[in-house]
């Protein structure tokens, strides 16, 4: 639906903006930009598959921006959750042997 250059631009910018909003340094700028690109292309592909009527450019652009932001946000959320190893382990970081 959208031109290739537009999807790349949306993905890169949205991935980097999402990084500044979420904060932290989970993956790095390049990975966040790639996640944004992946989200933009995924939503564009889904729009092609599931919509049979023509969609205005503004609507498809907004949905693509949403997809480009959702994937980096989801990965940051998953990576910031405490792991079970930290929850079940000792508080001092040393393993206890029985």
Secondary structure blueprint with pairings:
Layout: H1 4-22, H2 29-50, H3 57-80, H4 84-88
Portion in helices: over 70%
* Tally of helical segments: 4
What is the N-to-C order of secondary-structure elements (H for helix, E for strand)?
HHHH
Please give the largest β-sheet: none
Integer average pLDDT: 79
* Poorly predicted regions: none
Give the end-to-end Cα distance, rounded to a whole number of Å: 61 Å
Task: Briefly say what this structure is.
This protein is an all-alpha fold and 98 residues long. The protein contains four helices and no strands.
Task: Kindly list the characteristics that best describe this protein.
mainly alpha, single chain, 4 helices, 98 residues, elongated
């Amino acid at each position: 639906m959208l031109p290739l250059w537009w999807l790349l631009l949306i993905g890169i910018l949205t991935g980097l903006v999402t990084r500044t909003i979420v904060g932290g340094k989970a993956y790095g700028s390049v990975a966040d930009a790639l996640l944004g690109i992946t989200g933009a292309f995924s939503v564009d592909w889904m729009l092609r598959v599931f919509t049979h009527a023509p969609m205005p450019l503004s609507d498809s652009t907004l949905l693509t921006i949403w997809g480009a932001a959702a994937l980096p946000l989801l990965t940051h959320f998953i990576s910031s959750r405490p792991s079970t190893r930290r929850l079940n382990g000792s508080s001092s970081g040393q393993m206890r042997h029985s």
